[in-house]
Design brief:
The complex is a heterodimer of chains A (213) and B (233). Chain A is mainly α and 213 residues long. Chain A is built from nine helices and no strands. Chain A starts with 6 loop residues before the first helix and ends with a helix. Chain B has a single domain, classed as Orthogonal Bundle (MetI-like fold), CATH 1.10.3720. The two termini of chain B are 35 Å apart. Classes of the chains: A mainly alpha (213), B mainly alpha (233).
Chain lengths: 213, 233
Amino acid sequence: MIGGVAWSTLGDLTLRHLYLAGLPLLIGLVLSVPLGWLAARVRWLGPPLIAGTGLMYTIPSLALFILLPLVLGTQVLSDVNVLVAMVIYTVALLTRSVADGFASVPAPVRQAATAMGYGELRRVGAVDLPLAIPVIAAGLRVAAVSNVSIVSIAALIGVSQLGQLFTDGFNRNAMGPILVGIVACVALAVALDALIVLVATLLTPWSRRRVPA
Amino acid sequence: MNQTVLMTWEWLTDPANWQGRGGILAQSLEHLRLSFVALLVAALIAVPTGLWVGHTGRLRWAAVNLTGAVRAIPSLGVLFVAVLLLLPRLRGELAFELPALIVLVALAVPPILSGTYAGVDATDPAARDAARGVGMTGGQVLRQVEIPGALPLIMSGLRSAMLQIIGTATIAAIVGLGGLGRFLIDGQASRQYDQMAGGAIAVAALALLVDQALALLQRVVVSPGLSSAARVR
């Protein structure tokens, strides 16, 4: 027990929270790469694409959780609503980062790759994308941390995760579970953030040599 | 599913739901009032602090890291902590409004602060040197060069702060705060999905409108020479 919360409950809720915040992060990343690439490459498409995805971020999370069953035809208590909402927020944040990342690739590098006989697709995968990783990772860190925070609000619509400790504690007038929940949320966010930094560092060995962090 | 869409539409278009003390119109105004009060207080704290940090370069590290750190803190949890701590110590209507307002202001300060700081910090050094060169004092450089140059980022800080405030004010209905969040929370308590969904649409529309209004304001106040540098977020 810690702060009136059983360790096993805390573990279960943390895993649920990781699933609800983490899986959409991966799906959102996979969706944002082509979107961000389009925004960076096709000049007339860039501003409306980034403004459009950014607009989705303005929808308050509780409203989105409640509205998605209407759009998707899912049950109000379904995990799917939260997962889809978090994918939407992730794409909204990441499309701009991916576009910025692709735009940060120096033109001479792209031209050199083309001169070496790389086709467009192969060049994007082998040259542009790796070089864009630092900028994309920076956006992914923001998305990861904000996802963890937003998922906790789903407790208000009855989807269990760490946020449930907030509502339980509040309903019982007990500070313990709320504080445990806040600490666990922050710890999860910090852990995800560190994981992204680690993976990005491993994927960009050249940046380690030049700029010691 | 079609039936719930229809019911939500009927709820939203029923004039009876728009009028009166607890109507959509009154709650929208209440939501706006709370949000703008929170934004104003946050801006009064964050803009001068951000200008000071940007102009003097002091506490730069704190300003940079504050936004990221605060983003990790779940607003729902902080809201409950504030209410449990403050409710027994306050009386009357203020007891419900003040804890929520404190949380809203606390969440809004970091994005405004870091936007203001980053805006001043990003001032073209050549422009700053030129201003000094023509004999401007430190205060004049700040007022006539750094602040106008920082406006795009100050405005985008204000916009993201406002989105945060409107969203969190919606959640704060659970601790008794007025505003459009009432429809979401009360609708859930009485299992009226049409009211929940209708309220959610109203909140989303309000957030979009306010964000677009601030975007328009940004376009008006920012010098035309800088508008290409104006970024949304």
